TrEMBL record:
Family: Belongs to the FAD-binding monooxygenase family.
CC cofactor: FAD
GO MF annotations in UniProt: flavin adenine dinucleotide binding; N,N-dimethylaniline monooxygenase activity; NADP binding
Domain of life: Bacteria
Keywords, in A-Z order: FAD, Flavoprotein, Monooxygenase, NADP, Oxidoreductase
Presence of the UniProt keyword NADP in the record: yes
InterPro entries: FAD-binding_MO, FAD/NAD-bd_sf, Flavin_mOase-like
Protein name per Swiss-Prot or TrEMBL: FAD-containing monooxygenase EthA
Protein species of origin: Arthrobacter agilis
Length: 503
């Protein structure tokens, strides 16, 4: 006799910052539901467990990157990676979370059946000896909290002459534990958050660190400590102080973002004035920190306590804005003819984006083509029932949107139960102008834009980068708007197919 497949009410994919937060919300807001968290790796923490390069840290304050239900109590507002990892793991020690996590379990594919009102998940499970086997389980709702990056492969441009380089080439995503760069010449290729973190972190031990960027970039200095939040924690109970600090930082971050989008020339002037004041070198600012694009056309990099700029002023680090002609045995030759000598080259050229964690999806036998789909309320996909994606903000802390998404999922599941529905799926209601789901000009976004759902030109089909607007919708908005549900029926009655959604 064939053993029936295990069935769960909800499956969460990923045990990183988002997945642990989702597990908490499900366990507290849906206490009667069965659920599991599937984690492909053998540890909790996601990004914060995987990335081990020097100085790895958040570029968002911990009062907003942290969970609203677990106050951040450490001194630094901009925290290092090990502190964030410890915070996530401490949160996951809650038995309601820890006992639900299944490690070394990777989602390979998911098939939705409207007749059965459930997902059938194909899983790859790795044992203690490294062997793998395929297993299946079913669930009523699937919530993907695995982010949108490819954690197995970063973006690796083809560099001419790389094979001739006699030094060591390092990728931040796979940092060697035994890398010795003391008293060596280091070139960091890139100008994103990873490069801006690496330069000051390596500068104290290396002979010299050069950041090589193709074009100028914006970098803003922010305090490592938040004096307002420190004062709130001195005078208010921990929970209240956390909420006050969180609210202040949400408002400040959103105000600065709106300034950048609505008054870009003023924002440029403010950023440039700050950089000139710190560096005291107008020419360096003009050549390396005055981009042609507007602030927040690409994600804005931050330097806690101006550490990046201080490493430049000390002479331990420098910035060169040029393009690579070719690698040489002893370094990199630039298009200008200059050669940067290097013993170690770090390719901080960015991550690659990967939709749905690389898994494949079908609905009633029809493959799901994300590129032809639309994103609904920033977390569901048109025509796909009982599926949600956790995608954070690009202009603010990831957790702000991630937590709203988790709470929305809980509200939706309660709504389905209350109305007697087994499933619901978003449907579009007419032609829309399409825009990328992440409205940034950054290379990593543009390279992957066609593989992700589009956002439209009106609600609920836009990916708003605004917590103040998203919070009321996620917590109190109309759950039936632009949604179709199966008709309430006795358990034995067959549910209608969703074929019309794919027609």
């Amino acid at each position: 006799m064939e053993t029936p497949l295990e069935h769960l009410d909800v499956v969460v994919v990923g045990a990183g910052l988002s997945g642990v937060g989702a597990a908490y919300r499900i366990s507290t807001e849906l206490p009667g539901k069965t659920f599991a968290v599937l984690e492909a790796r053998s540890a909790i923490g996601g990004t914060w467990d995987l990335f081990r390069y020097p100085g790895v840290r958040s570029d968002s304050d911990m009062f907003t990157l942290g969970y609203p239900f677990r106050p951040w109590t450490e001194a630094k507002a901009i925290a290092d990676g090990s502190s964030i990892l410890r915070y996530i793991r401490d949160t996951a020690e809650d038995p309601r979370i820890r006992e639900r996590i299944r490690f070394r379990t990777r989602l390979v594919s998911a098939a939705w059946s409207s007749r059965d009102a459930r997902w059938t998940l194909e899983l790859e499970v790795t044992d203690d000896d490294g062997g793998t086997e395929r297993r299946q389980l079913t669930c009523g709702f699937l919530y993907l909290c695995s982010g949108y990056y490819n954690y197995e492969h970063g973006h690796e441009p083809a560099f001419p002459g790389l094979e001739s380089f006699e030094g060591e080439v390092v990728r931040p995503q796979f940092w060697p534990e035994d890398l010795d760069y003391a008293d060596k010449r280091v070139v960091v290729i890139g100008s994103g958050a990873t490069a801006v973190t690496l330069v000051p972190s390596m500068a104290d031990d290396a002979a010299h660190v050069t950041m090589l960027q193709r074009s100028p970039t914006y970098i803003t200095a922010v305090p490592s400590r938040d004096r307002f939040s420190d004062a709130a924690r001195r005078h208010l109970p921990a929970g209240l102080a956390h909420h006050v600090a969180r609210a202040k930082n949400v408002l400040f971050t959103q105000a600065f973002y709106q300034l950048c989008r609505r008054r870009p020339e003023l924002a440029k002037k403010l950023i440039r004035t700050q950089t000139e004041r710190i560096l005291g070198d107008e020419r360096t600012v003009q050549e390396n920190f005055t981009p042609a694009y507007n602030p927040w056309d690409q994600r804005l990099c931050v330097a806690p306590s101006a550490d990046f700029f201080r490493s430049l002023k000390s002479g331990k680090a420098s910035v060169v804005t040029d393009t690579i002609d070719a690698f040489t045995p002893h370094g990199i030759r630039l298009a200008s003819g200059q050669e940067l000598e290097a013993d170690v080259v770090v390719t901080a050229t960015g991550l690659s984006m990967l939709p749905l964690g690389g898994a494949t999806f079908t609905v009633d036998g029809h493959p799901v083509d994300l590129g032809d789909s639309w994103v609904y309320r920033g977390l569901m996909v048109s025509g796909v029932p009982n599926l949600a994606l956790c995608v954070g903000y690009t202009n603010a802390s990831w957790t702000l949107r991630a937590d709203l998404s988790s709470r929305y999922v809980c509200r939706l599941i309660k709504y389905l139960d209350r109305r007697g529905h087994r499933y619901g799926a978003p449907v579009t209601d007419g032609a829309m102008t399409a825009r990328p789901i992440l409205d940034l000009t950054s290379g990593y976004v543009q390279r992957a834009v066609s593989a992700f759902p589009k956002q439209g030109d009106r609600q609920p089909w836009t990916m708003r980068q605004n917590y103040l607007l998203d919070a009321p919708t996620a917590l109190h908005g109309n759950l039936a708007k632009n949604m179709v549900f199966d008709a309430p029926a006795p358990p034995a009655a067959p549910a209608p197919e969703l074929q019309e959604i794919h027609a």
